[in-house]
Amino acid sequence: MTGSWATPAPTEVKRPGWDEYFMLLAEQAAKRGTCSRLQVGAVVVQNNRVVGTGYNGAPQNIPHCEHYEDAPCEISVHAEVNALLYARFDEGAWGPTKMYCTHMPCFECSKLILNTPITIVYYREWYGRNAGHDLLSTGGVHIVRVP
Ligand SMILES: [Zn+2]
Ligand SMILES: [Zn+2]
């Protein structure tokens, strides 16, 4: 009786952890980016819920930027800024407020991040020129690279 009636072992569900999950969402947001030079996405998270998302692109009613050489983008609003503009921060959040970025935020975005409740920034790709790593760190924001 035992063999065939034994409860089968549950099928294990493979699923991403929280950090991987939110980074995947940031990468999906990046796919909406309109800058032909680089697509960037950002997600703001409180209590393991998304409270804001953004991707980079020209401001509303302005034509998408086009690049014919590897010059810095002049017109795009960065993903982090868009995520912050549309974020609805919950004052009663029990955990740290986090931002997941496909790329290390630049210096300008980092200044803005420091003036929000965000205390942890996760990123995947290094943003070479003008990265805000040192500024964030000096301002007390914890930085974690998601491999
Ligand atoms: Zn551009
Ligand atoms: Zn930026």
Write down the Rg. 19 Å
Low-confidence segments, given as residue ranges, are: none
Percentage of residues in strands = 15-25%
User: Tell me, what's the shape?
Assistant: globular
Say how many strands there are.
5
Q: How far is the N terminus from the C terminus?
A: 49 Å
Bound small molecules, which ones?
zinc ion
Description:
This protein has 147 residues and is α/β, with parallel strands linked by helices. 26% of the residues lie in helices and 22% in strands. The protein has five helices and five strands. It has a five-stranded mixed β-sheet. One zinc ion binds at residues 78, 80, 105-106, 108-109.
Q: How would you sum up this structure in a few lines?
A:
By secondary structure, this protein is an alpha/beta fold. It has helices at residues 2-5, 18-30, 79-85, 107-114, 133-138, and strands at residues 41-46, 49-55, 97-103, 118-125, 142-145.
Keywords:
globular; 147 residues; 26% helix; alpha/beta; 22% strand; binds zinc ion; single chain
Give the SSE layout:
Blueprint: H1 2-5, H2 18-30, E1 41-46, E2 49-55, H3 79-85, E3 97-103, H4 107-114, E4 118-125, H5 133-138, E5 142-145
Parallel strand pairs: 3-4, 4-5
Antiparallel strand pairs: 1-2, 1-3
The protein binds zinc ion (2 copies).
One zinc ion binds next to α4.
